[in-house]
Every structure is written in C-alpha cells, then in structure tokens.
Amino acid sequence: MREGLFIKKNKEHWEKIEHDRSANADETASNFTRLVNDLAYAKTFYPGSKITTYLNALASRIYLSIYQNRKDPENRLAAFVRRDLPLTIARRYKMLLFAFGVFVIFFSVGFFSAMQDKTFVRQVLGDGYVDMTEQNIAEGNPFDVYAQTSPFLMWIQIMLNNIIVCIMYFFRGVLLGIPSILALGRESIRIGAFEYMFYSHGLGADAVVTVLLHGLLELTAIIITCGAGLVMGTSWLFPGTRRRFKALQDGVKDGVKIVAALIPVFMVAAFIEGFVTRHYKMPLPMSLGILAACGAFIVWYFILYPFQVAAAERKRRAATYE
C-alpha cells in the first residue's frame, strides 16, 4: 500500500484518538492495539516517514496514559507482609524448624546443667547478675531488674541492642550457617540457666509468665533470625537445579527478607519489656492474655499462614497451566 493511501485510510481514526480524551478503558485499549499495529506497518514500509514519527508519538502518549499513573493493586509493603514473606517462610521452613530444634536442645542443656552443677548459673550469667537477682528474690521483688530503668529508655536500649545483635547473628551465617547456630546455642543455654535460677527458688512458673511477656516474641525472633542465617549459609550447598552462585543469591535474598520482617517484632518485644514486664505483679489473667495474644500471633503468622499462602499459590499456578 502506498503511503498516501495508508494515511487517507486511517487519518480520521488517528485524529479521533488524538483529540478524544474521554475514551473508556476498553476503548483506550482497543485504540492502543490498533495504533501499535499501524505503527508496526509504518515502520516496516515507511521507516523514515513523518507518519511513522507521528504514530510513534501518539502510541507513546496513550501508553503513558495507561501505565504511568496506574496505581498498584496492592501496596508493596502490604504485598510483602501478606504474600512475599509468608511464601519465603514456607519455602524455608525446614531450616527454621531446625533452628527451633537447636533452641529446644540447648535450652534443655542449660537448664539441666544448672540443675547438676550449682556453679553453672554463675558461669553463664555472671556473679553480678546472679547476686542482684538473689537479693531481689530475698526482698520479695524477684523481677525488679525490669523496673530499674525508665520505660522509654529501656525500650530504646533493648530494641537497638536486640536488632543489632540479631543482624550480626544473621550475617555470621554466611559461613555455612554454623556461627548463627552456635550463637543460638549459646543464647539457649543462657536462657535455660536463667530459668533454672528462678526454678531453684520455687519461682519457675512466675519466671515463665513474667519473662515470656516479652520473651515469647523476642525468642521467636532470635530463633528465626539464626534460622535465616542458616538459610543464607547453606543455600549454596544445596542448589538444586540452580547454579551455586544463583542459589547463594536466592538464599541471601530470602534471609534478608526474613530478618527485615523481624525488626517490628523486636520493636514490639522491647516495648513490652520496657513498659509492661515491669508490672509483673499485675493480675494473672492479664499476663496470660498478653501471652495468649503473642502466642496466637506467632502460631498464625509464622506457622499456619505461610502454608495457607503457599497452598493458594500452588492452586493459582495449577489453574494458570490448565
């Protein structure tokens, strides 16, 4: 087709598209499809023509009107929390479960070692801390250590310390994950010895209820952080069908996702420790209510919800390929 005939045949339609700003979505999509076809034809047969330049500019304008100001159907942060992170947890659950197993084993080691060796608690926690705690127990305020600093200052200090320490635990995991697991083992032994210190004074249940007000979230975050370090460090050992470097990249990305998502958990745990735990003499139902809320969140978001999202994703993919 000669260029003049091509222009004459389509000119009216192009002008309508150019001047009509009230087209609905379906019309706009149809117009854009036709323009792209006309542009492809013009580039093929009239590559240096002004009509090719005109159609290219017109198609670009419509493209921008469709995509430039388009809002994402879901906020990126919301998508991360609702989909990306749960899928990552479900994909890496074996490593996180292994980290939990390490915690249980070494917590038991710390508890029963303190039971067998009366000096073990002091070796692990230090004489100063043990002497202070025993003095508080003798005075009838066994958990007064949580009330010796202003709530806000305590919140900030604990939050920053826990975040920094756990980021260090995570990045140490680059060495096959071994340093992360060793760090988790040491922390678990300390916690086991700490619990026995109160248990030996007949305050085991009180320690569980009081310390877990903030400790349930805090310990969960520490375990998952060290599990994320294991994910990163072992990813290149088990690359599957991927190249080892690509597997390492994926492991680092997944680990960073997990650790980044735990920062709010550390913030909330530190807030509870700074503002709530100091009131350890609160009515038992109130303490149990806080524990139940924290426990329900952990079980739902870190155990049940990831597998629900993963199952929905598998169904979606299966429907796509049918």
From TrEMBL:
It comes from the Bacteria. InterPro entries: SpoIIM-like. Keywords: Membrane, Transmembrane, Transmembrane helix. The keyword Membrane applies. Pfam families: SpoIIM. The chain crosses the membrane at residues 95-115, 152-175, 196-213, 219-238, 258-276, 288-307. The keyword Membrane applies. This is Stage II sporulation protein M. It comes from Flaviaesturariibacter amylovorans. The lineage of its organism: Bacteria, Pseudomonadati, Bacteroidota, Chitinophagia, Chitinophagales.
